Amino acid sequence: MQTRNYLLNNYYVNVLMTRTTDTYVSLADRVALANSNGADYFVSIHINAGGGTGFESYIYDGTVSSNTINWRQILHDTIMSRIGSAWNVSDRGKKRANFYVLRETAMPAVLTENLFIDTSQDLSKLNNPSFISTLAQAHADGIAQALSLPAKLAVKN
């Protein structure tokens, strides 16, 4: 939600959310929503689990457009530039996988895995409002840079 709010407050963009409450939306419904609304970019933001630490991003492991590759590079690098050394977050890399939301969307798509909820050092960051704000803004700015979104100019009084 913070990523959406930051995008809407700082850039000229329309944002379509698959959910805004803590409810489950099926993978098929997420993809159908993006595809039926003609989304330009699909970004799926997750928190990882499984005993690791750090940040990683995924694109589909099949054939993808050059925009998919380039936009993921920009998003990943923007996020890591904000959380890497400043928050001591390890870069687990830019990966490819056969995830449903990456495979079935009709537009460039990326999935980010933002730290591990079951690792104490990552969980402490995920519980820190300042870290979450930094992470959300990094996602928003990476998306904006990838899509060349025009920034809203601050109004001076």
From TrEMBL:
Pfam families for the chain: Amidase_3
**GO CC terms on record?**
outer membrane-bounded periplasmic space
Instruction: List the CDD domains hit by this protein, alphabetically.
Output: MurNAc-LAA (cd02696)
**Entry's Gene Ontology BP terms:** peptidoglycan catabolic process
Instruction: Write down the superkingdom of origin.
Output: Bacteria
Query: Under the GO molecular function aspect, what terms does this record hold?
Result: N-acetylmuramoyl-L-alanine amidase activity
Kindly give the SUPFAM superfamilies that the UniProt entry links to this protein.
Answer: Zn-dependent exopeptidases (SSF53187)
Entries under Gene3D superfamilies matching the protein: Zn-dependent exopeptidases
Keyword list (alphabetical) reads: Hydrolase
Q: Which residues form the MurNAc-LAA domain?
A: 31-144
Please identify the protein, giving its name as recorded. N-acetylmuramoyl-L-alanine amidase
Q: Which organism is it from?
A: Melghirimyces profundicolus
